[in-house]
Design a protein that fits this description.
By secondary structure, the chain is mainly alpha-helical. The chain has a single domain (about 20-404), classed as Growth Hormone, Chain: A, CATH 1.20.1250.20. It has helices at about 1-10, 20-50, 55-85, 85-100, 105-110, 110-140, 145-175, 175-190, 215-245, 255-265, 265-280, 285-305, 310-340, 345-375, 375-390. Helix 2 (about 20-50) packs across helix 9, helix 3 (about 55-85) crosses helix 6 and helix 9 packs antiparallel against helix 13 (about 310-340). The longest helix has about 35 residues, at about 20-50.
Length: about 400
């Protein structure tokens, strides 16, 4: 149903490639369901652990370990994508995600073993899904209008990630956080089904060949992707902890509903930005967008230590959504063009996935060390100032697409 609705809404704008748009529609539908399931849970996982009595130092280093595990998991993920194709890899990843979500509600009873099982399942499934998504989209996109298609994909993702925290927050408030985890199991299971209606977009039984890989034209983007991973950690886990510890301390289960509502409010900024920025990228303004949005994102992180009220949370979220959407879309367009030109699509995206998770791991380590050195509040404040400096690296790659 979701796929057919998206197809009717967007078909008129893709008449030049109607014969292949169904593949993009399938990807939109699958991505929307997965992101809905994922964000329902990940927005509140750190808060869930905090309310279960785990210290902030433990939570920070736990997430560092989570992303550290994802780095070597990129290798078997790339092998699966190369051999079975990205669509079947997506199916496998979603089934593993559904399995992993069974363990999270067991954490209050079984403690670390249940948390470890969830961590391993989600780390592998997340790595496999992200890599397969990038391979699939980079292959089926239309090169002349990729900015617009990335914009539509971003709109789909923002709808899912904007609404899901509100729904998840209300479910957690009324029936407890475990109810959110149960719903996510069903959504993860359903998310890959739209992709199975058509053939794989890439050759099957491929081998990963590293000889001749164009390091000179790709290394800057890999460094920048490390900063992207750091930013993902800062805007996700660290910001959730900031709201839990400083803005909504001692709120009980109400915190899920409040943070979910404040997160959802920013969906308007994300939707408008996704459409406008897609147009800019197709008009050859991607380089300028990447630089301006990256600087804006850095300023947003620098502002966050001064946030003390829910209204300021909304303002910070609005700024962050617009800035993150801008740099992510411009960066993604340049990244896909690099993948096309490299002659090593899967290998390049494999390195991109490793770099992103390595950056997020560094974010977790940095936050954990700051907690140990300065305590809870000062540690969080210091982390966002550091994040403001680190994310400036996102504007450093010299994509060939933006030199034309």
């Amino acid at each position: 149903m979701i796929q057919s609705i998206l197809h009717r809404l967007l078909q008129r704008r893709h008449f030049w490639r109607y014969a292949t748009f169904s593949e993009v529609a399938e990807l939109y539908a699958s991505r929307m369901m997965r992101m809905f399931a994922l964000r329902m849970v990940t927005t509140f996982t750190a808060i869930f652990l905090y309310q279960e009595g785990y210290s902030l130092v433990f939570i920070a280093f736990f997430w560092a370990l989570f992303y550290a595990i994802k780095v070597p998991f990129a290798w078997p993920a790339a092998l699966i994508a190369a051999r079975l194709g990205p669509k079947h890899g997506t199916l496998i990843s979603n089934l593993i995600s559904a399995l992993g979500m069974v363990f999270l509600p067991l954490v209050p009873t079984y403690g670390l073993p249940a948390l470890a099982a969830w961590c391993v399942c989600q780390a592998f499934s997340g790595t496999l899904n992200d890599l397969c998504y990038m391979i699939d989209f980079s292959k089926v996109k239309n090169s002349l209008h990729a900015g617009k298609e990335i914009g539509y994909m971003n709109i789909i993702e923002k709808i899912a990630t904007g609404i899901s925290p509100l729904i998840g927050g209300m479910l957690a408030f009324v029936w407890g956080p475990e109810s959110v985890m149960g719903v996510s199991v069903a959504l993860f299971t359903l998310a890959a089904l739209p992709l199975l209606k058509s053939a794989e977009p890439t050759m099957l039984h491929q081998k990963l060949i590293f000889r001749g890989f164009p390091w000179r034209t790709t290394w800057r983007s890999l460094v920048a992707e490390t900063a992207v991973g750091f930013d993902v950690y800062a805007s996700g886990t660290a910001w959730s902890l900031f709201m839990a510890v400083i803005i909504f301390a001692h709120n009980g289960n109400e915190i899920y509903a409040k943070i979910g509502a404040l997160t959802t409010i920013t969906i308007v900024a994300a939707l408008i930005a996704s459409y406008v920025f897609g147009q800019l990228i197709d008009k050859r303004r991607g380089k300028e967008l990447l630089i301006v949005a990256t600087v804006a994102n850095a300023l947003t992180h620098a502002f966050r230590p001064f946030v003390v009220t829910p209204a300021m949370v909304v303002a910070s979220n609005f700024a962050n959504e617009a800035a993150t959407t801008g740099y992510a879309m411009a960066f993604t367009r340049g990244m896909f063009d690099t993948a096309d030109l490299s002659g090593h699509r899967i290998v390049y995206l494999f390195f991109i996935e490793m770099a992103a998770n390595f950056g997020a791991m560094l974010g977790g380590v940095a936050l954990g060390l700051l907690f140990m050195a300065f305590g809870d509040k000062l540690g969080l404040h210091s982390f966002f100032f550091i994040s403001a400096a680190v994310v400036l690296l996102i504007a450093s790659p010299r994509f060939m697409l933006y030199r034309k």
